[in-house]
Write a structure and sequence with these properties.
Blueprint: H1 3-45, H2 50-62, H3 65-76, H4 80-104, H5 108-116, H6 121-151, H7 164-173, H8 176-204, H9 207-216
Length: 218
C-alpha cells in the first residue's frame, strides 16, 4: 500500500483517534502538574515526609500498566474515567521528584540574600526558587508527557479510545497497515511533545544559566 492509499484508507480513523488520545494525555498531565508541583514544594518545607511520600509514588510507578488498568476496573468501570485516574497516577513521579530535587538544590546563599532584603517566604518562592528550578520542573513534565502518550495507548483496552484502538485492532486482525496507522501517529506525537517541552524548557531557563551552559560548549 502506497502513502496515498494509506491516508485515504486510514486518515479519518487516525484523526478520530488522535482527539481522545490527546485528551487522555493532556488532562492527566494537567492534573499531575496541579498536584505534583505544589506537593513537591510542600515536601521541601517538611523534608521528613519526603522519603515516605516519594516512596509511595515510586511504588505506583512500578505497577505494570496493564495490571494498573485492570485494578481500576472494579472501582471505576470502563471508559475515560479509570484511564484518566491511572494516567494521572503515572504522571506524578517525574514531576514530583524533579520539583522536590530542584527546589532543594537552590543555593542557600541566594535564599539568605533574599531574606536579607526583606522578602517573605512566598516572595522567595515565586521570585527566587521557582524561576531557578523551572527548567528542572519542565524536564519532569516533559518526561511524564512522553510516557503518557505511550501509556495512553493501553487505555483503549478499557474502552477509553485513542490511537490504541488502531494498534490493538491491527494486532487482532494481523493487519500491519492498521497497526502502523496507530503506532506511527503515537510515535510522532511523543516526538512532537518532547520537542515542544524542550523548547519550553529553554524559554524558562534564566538567561544567565543559559549563557553559562553555552559557554561550556564553546
Amino acid at each position: 500500500m502506497n502513502q496515498s492509499d494509506f491516508w485515504s484508507t486510514y486518515g479519518n480513523r487516525i484523526l478520530e483517534s488522535i482527539g481522545p488520545h490527546l485528551f487522555l494525555t493532556g488532562v492527566s498531565l494537567g492534573l499531575g502538574i496541579l498536584f505534583a508541583v505544589p506537593l513537591g514544594i510542600l515536601l521541601t518545607r517538611f523534608p521528613r515526609w519526603s522519603g515516605p511520600v516519594i516512596a509511595v509514588v515510586s511504588v505506583l510507578q512500578t505497577i505494570p500498566s496493564l495490571a494498573f488498568f485492570a485494578l481500576a476496573l472494579p472501582f471505576l468501570g470502563i471508559g475515560m474515567q479509570p484511564a484518566l485516574v491511572v494516567l494521572f497516577l503515572y504522571s506524578l513521579l517525574p514531576i514530583l521528584r524533579n520539583t522536590y530535587v530542584g527546589v532543594r538544590a537552590v543555593d542557600a546563599t541566594l535564599l539568605d540574600a533574599a531574606r536579607g532584603q526583606g522578602m517573605t517566604d512566598w516572595e522567595i518562592l515565586y521570585l527566587v526558587e521557582l524561576p531557578l528550578v523551572a527548567p528542572v520542573i519542565v524536564t519532569g513534565i516533559r518526561l511524564a508527557a512522553v510516557y503518557l502518550v505511550s501509556w495512553a495507548t493501553l487505555a483503549s483496552l478499557i474502552g477509553a479510545g485513542g490511537l490504541g484502538d488502531l494498534i490493538f485492532a491491527g494486532l487482532a486482525s494481523y493487519d500491519a497497515n492498521l497497526l502502523m496507522a496507530g503506532a506511527i501517529p503515537t510515535a510522532v506525537l511523543a516526538l512532537l511533545i518532547g520537542f515542544v517541552f524542550g523548547l519550553v524548557r529553554r524559554l524558562v531557563t534564566p538567561r544567565g544559566i543559559r549563557k553559562e551552559v553555552q559557554a561550556r560548549w564553546i
